[in-house]
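User: I'm new to structure prediction. If I give you an amino acid sequence, what do you actually give back? Let's try with this one:
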Amino acid sequence: QIRHMEGKHQVEVKALINDSETQRNGLTTKIALLMKDLEGLAAEDLKKADLLCIRDVELNELKIKISEMIVEHEESIKSLKARHQTERGSLMKEMLAKERDMCDKYEQEKNDLNE
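Assistant: Good question. You get back a string of structure tokens that encode the predicted 3D arrangement of the chain. For your 115 residues, that looks like this:
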């Protein structure tokens, strides 16, 4: 049961990490495209300075979004790991209680047979 639970937990953590990487890669691509766009605009005349400012704001917003997303995913992973540890601890307690109960029953049956 513990191995099954750990496997399930690993799949959940990997899914979170993959989702984070996919989103980060998409945003990184957008940033690269915006940077390329900014470089092209810089070579043109000053009439396009307003567009440069807009692109710069978008770029900064994307950077902030990436930072927030990374923090959010790290917190989700920490929370998931904590939940998994709690579940594992509960399962271990349950298994130990069952084992103790079985031992007690075995001892009782043994004593009953000896009497």
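You can read the tokens as a compact description of the fold. Here is one thing that stands out. The radius of gyration is 28 Å.
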